[in-house]
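Notes to self after the Tuesday call (sharing in case useful).
The group wants a holo model before anyone commits to mutagenesis around the pocket. I volunteered. Ligand is nicotinamide-adenine-dinucleotide. Logging inputs and output together so the record is complete.
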Amino acid sequence: MRFQIPVHVADRSYTVHIGPGLFAQVGNLTALALQRQAHRAFIVADARVPASVVIAVADSLKSVGLAVRSWALKPSEQDKSLASVERILIEMAKAKLERDDPVIALGGGIIGDVTGFAAAIYRRGIPVIQCPTTLLAMVDASVGGKTGVNLALAEGSLADLKKNFVGVFHQPRLVIADIDSLKTLPPRVLRCGLAECIKHGLLGAIGGDTALLSWMETRLDLFLAQDPDSLVELVSRNVAIKARIVAGDEREEADDATGGRALLNLGHTFAHAIETISHLSPDGTPKNAPLQHGEAVGLGLIAAAATSRALQLCDAATADRITTIINRAGLPTRIAGLPTDEELIAQMLHDKKVRAGELRLILPTQSGDAQVVRNPPSEAVKAGIAAIVLPV
Ligand SMILES: NC(=O)c1ccc[n+]([C@@H]2O[C@H](COP(=O)([O-])OP(=O)(O)OC[C@H]3O[C@@H](n4cnc5c(N)ncnc54)[C@H](O)[C@@H]3O)[C@@H](O)[C@H]2O)c1
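Result:
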């Protein structure tokens, strides 16, 4: 099974290819997608992607006449930094990459975001081909053109990491999601991808697929067991939702009443605050700290639903359904060790979605949709936080 989903953006539309065995075709697909003749290609690879996968991609690019160099990065949120971007820029310059030569981002969302940003600013912009290798990157990060890095206000401190604070829009020329690459993913990382899929399911009404959430509820076990056809359909339906929302508001400029692309941040203001608290872990054990992005997103969705419930924007059945599917996906639904409500809200006020010092939360509604809520009453936000606190 194989799908091609078009992403329509102002500059230049592009295609997301989804299926098994696709990394052997990166060369051909790249040659077709580039407008001008390229001579070299540069791969930025996730150091945890098996060498055989990097070699397959490099061989495929060589087969269409490109000279290929690659460079590996072991991704972490701390290394999603301007320093990493500078290293990549230097390596690209050493590889003598020119304006028409593509850079290939081969890895999870961190590699995609950092590499996309480097591609956007190298010689004022060169083509980037996104080759996502995590479920989260396939369904979300590789599509839509947001690139960037975190900004560390203090060295080494996760709490002072401003998530995705520096970046630009730089749409990929092509996205190739080879489902086979998910086989080596640690189960924890696969589950993180399901959190963003659940988020898309909650946006089904605006994304044109109202059946996605209930379809996912019936297939969760197949996703976790890595059934290939189920994964291809899962990625395709999620990419279609993201593509439709991005096409409607490419640069997130819609007003709050319309929502637009900002709705894709459903649950994310809670998530960004939670994931920068370094001692938190999904099971309370220090060895599993910190939370991964998808785990924080799952908790953020539950907190957003409880906030929405407190504001009577959604009913109890909707909020319970969200908690149940996140739990069934093997993601944490409550955690120990959160700071006080006031401290967490203060951290949320550092989110880049804040405007004029006011919180802007994206909250789910029971209609399979979401809405922007400006400056919600703190009691409602506290009700959201209470929903994810593990009682001691
Ligand atoms: N640009 C966007 O629109 C967008 C959207 C959503 C998330 N993001 C960003 O994406 C990042 C999260 O992405 P992620 O969940 O992919 O995390 P990640 O990039 O940290 O990857 C997760 C882990 O999986 C490993 N890995 C990757 N591919 C592998 C493979 N095939 N086999 C074995 N291990 C593999 C990585 O080395 C890492 O340890 C966050 O920084 C988030 O801000 C960006």
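Two things stood out.
The CA atoms of residues 89 and 118 lie 6 Å apart.
The radius of gyration is 20 Å.
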